[in-house]
Specification:
With 258 residues, the chain is of the alpha/beta class. The protein is built from nine helices and 13 strands. The strands form three sheets. The chain has a five-stranded parallel sheet with strand order 3-2-4-1-5, sandwiched between helices. α7 (145-155) links the parallel β7 (134-137) and β8. α4 (63-73) crosses α5. The protein is elongated, with a radius of gyration of 20 Å. It binds S-adenosyl-L-homocysteine (SAH). The site of S-adenosyl-L-homocysteine has 24 residues, from α6 and β11. One of its GO terms (molecular function) is precorrin-3B C17-methyltransferase activity. InterPro entries: 4pyrrol_Mease (IPR000878), 4pyrrol_Methylase_sf (IPR035996), 4pyrrole_Mease_sub1 (IPR014777), 4pyrrole_Mease_sub2 (IPR014776), Cbl_synth_CobJ/CibH_dom (IPR006363), Precorrin_MeTrfase (IPR051810). Keywords: Cobalamin biosynthesis, Methyltransferase, S-adenosyl-L-methionine, Transferase. Residues 8-214 form the Tetrapyrrole methylase domain.
Amino acid sequence: MQSSNRGKLFIIGIGPGNTDFMIKRASDAIRESDIIIGNDFYLNLIKPLVEDKEVIYSSMGKEVERARRCIELAEKKKVAMISGGDPGIYGMAGIVIEIIKKDSSGVDYEVIPGVTAATAAASRTGSPLSGDYTTISLSDLLTPLEVIEKRLDLAFQMGVPVVLYNPKSNGRPHNLAMALGTALKYKSGDTPVAVVKNSHREGEEIRYYTLAELFEDDGFVDMRSVVTIGGEESEFIGEGEDISGIITPRGYDRKYVY
Ligand code: SAH
């Protein structure tokens, strides 16, 4: 069934896991679309919504091709392009909008936000990001390694929590050790760290480390994990085997007595 003659491109973030963690506008837009484009992994997470749709499976690493194809299809049809987390955070929105601008395409598009990995993981680990924080991706596919190193060096001097996306993959197993080594230049070895693997998905696992411990052995971390390194005021909730999260006070204690 075709919904109307006018095309539209929805660039949709599905959040960290299955449809329970997606916003309503995202599921409505998928229902409204004629064609769904995304990779197996994400389409599997939202299977009930795409079962009776025309689906185009795309593989990782062909983002530019995928973006152009979606823009062309969206001239006449309603197309849903699926991204994990938020599409504007290390996702597909950037490249799609770059191409729309470059090609002066008049395509109608809408970016629909999703819960990004940093805040999804934070919700599982207390309140590690209560105030300012920063995120850095360790993927050097699109950003040169020297630029990542420079940003890390500056980020760890800010004293705020730092969330590392794309912390490790087969192609770049050493970037995480480099990042943790940089953190140790400025931060105490006792700094609390949370690793959240597969947040809000099957296989979810959470482990806590001190910065020095994770630097010693980061074997648990993989590309489906985010690593949250506490800021100068962050503390563990609980001790030893009973650690249940990280709290970064926002500063209420400077203003109120409680
Ligand atoms: N657009 C996505 C990020 C894509 S980059 C977002 O907003 O979340 C891919 C990286 O995101 C992964 O290497 C991992 O570090 C992180 N990531 C994405 N989903 C995750 C999840 N459910 N649990 C843990 N990390 C996740």
